[in-house]
Specification:
The protein is α+β, with helices and mostly antiparallel strands and 120 residues long. The chain has a single domain, classed as Alpha-Beta Plaits (2-Layer Sandwich), CATH 3.30.70.100. Strands 2-3-1-4 form a four-stranded antiparallel β-sheet. It starts with a strand and ends with a helix. This is DUF1428 family protein.
């Protein structure tokens, strides 16, 4: 089963173009080093909940948008190998991060279920 790295972060609305440029570079780097897929999504219907929500989780302000993204790998071992190469890649080391990385939530996930495994 595939292994997934997931991310949630807040990007200032006036830095979306800079974030998009960074995401394009990051996508190329991750895929070049062996990731199977790379997806970036900008929040469109992400309400601020009373107790929990994506915006609360990353302390998003009125002038920020929530980004939800994930990277797919063959398995955990491939993820660890790919990420070691990515972290050493000079294209990302020199990149200006157009968001507050301290408020980013991320983690690695083992796949529990895929539609392709149950439909078919």
């Amino acid at each position: 089963m595939p292994y997934i790295d997931g991310f949630v972060l807040a990007v200032p609305k006036d830095k979306i173009d800079a974030y998009r440029a960074l995401a394009r570079t990051a996508c190329a780097v991750w895929l070049e080093h062996g990731a199977l897929d790379y997806v970036e999504c900008i929040g469109d219907d992400v309400p601020y909940g009373q107790l929990t929500s994506f915006p609360r989780a990353v302390m998003a302000t009125e002038d920020e948008v929530v980004v939800f993204s994930w990277i797919v790998y063959r398995d955990r071992e491939a993820r660890d190998a790919v990420n070691a190469k990515v972290m050493a890649d000079p294209r990302l080391k020199a990149a200006d991060m157009p968001f507050d990385g301290k408020r980013m939530i991320y983690g690695g996930f083992t796949t529990l279920l895929r539609a392709s495994d149950v439909v078919g």
